[in-house]
Amino acid sequence: MNNNKTMVDGANASPPYNFNNLSGLRRSDKRSAIRQKFIAGLICSLAWLSAPTFAAETPATQPAAQGSTTVRFLVLANRESPLSSVVPGRMAKINVQLGDPVTQGKVLASMDCSDLVARKNAAEAEFHAAQLRYEAKAKLQGLQSAAALEVGLAASEVNRTKGQVGIFDAQLAQCRFVAPFNGRVAKIYVKEGQGIGAGAPVIDLVGSGTLRARLNVPSNWVAWLKIGSQLNASVGETGKQYPLTVTNISGKVDAVSQTIEIETRFPEKTDDVLPGMSGQAVAICPPDENRCLKSGAANS
């Protein structure tokens, strides 16, 4: 009797779920097993994702607590001039090479503008002919053989042809590329014999004066930053440090990044620094300027 009861109880007892073999379970049991398996996997995934996030956030907050706020900067030349062609033509001669120092007024390159020269010669011939006609009309007027209107028209023709010669002189001046200031050749875009169109770049020139640096600093620096403030800069390419002096401060704060653009000046003798280099800078707080220290700048 007990054996039979045991067999009946064993038959009515619910077997434990086997997640690896769902084929023998009823439909409702299958859904319950799948749900439990999904929840268990979701909990494991969340636990795995949360652990590296906390580990990554910890170092990110350390620099602000450990030291001063650093900002990136870009080195700029004191003057830059991208020389380009105003008239189309063919490049006849290039007188400089990449990196050459140049002085103001030096002809860096010239174009073959022989067609303009020919047209100018024709305009000069018309100008001389107009002058002769005017002089003849003026003499005839003195002899009472020419009206004042004829003399006036002859004078107008002289002025018209003279202006035409001036136009060709201006166009011929555009065939030469002259250095507008002392500097160095930064880039040459063309070669001798190459045809170029109007507006095509020819030579990039950078000035040889005191270098500048452009920075985007935190907007809370505006409370104490002013013209003449000092920053300590480290140029990545040279590995050296240089003092920077603030020369210009933008009149607008960028609303997205909460930064403001400033320009600074390098010392006079920085021959090893070139435009285009970059690095990091730290502001130097004036004495007794607590707002500067609170903004993350370095103490003087």
TrEMBL record:
InterPro entries: MdtA-like_BSH (IPR058625), RND_pump_MFP (IPR006143). Signal peptide: none annotated. It comes from the Bacteria. GO terms for molecular function: efflux transmembrane transporter activity. Pfam families: BSH_RND. Residues 84-201 form the Multidrug resistance protein MdtA-like barrel-sandwich hybrid domain. GO terms for cellular component: efflux pump complex. Belongs to the membrane fusion protein (MFP) (TC 8.A.1) family. This is Membrane fusion protein. It comes from Buttiauxella noackiae ATCC 51607. The lineage of its organism: Bacteria, Pseudomonadati, Pseudomonadota, Gammaproteobacteria, Enterobacterales.
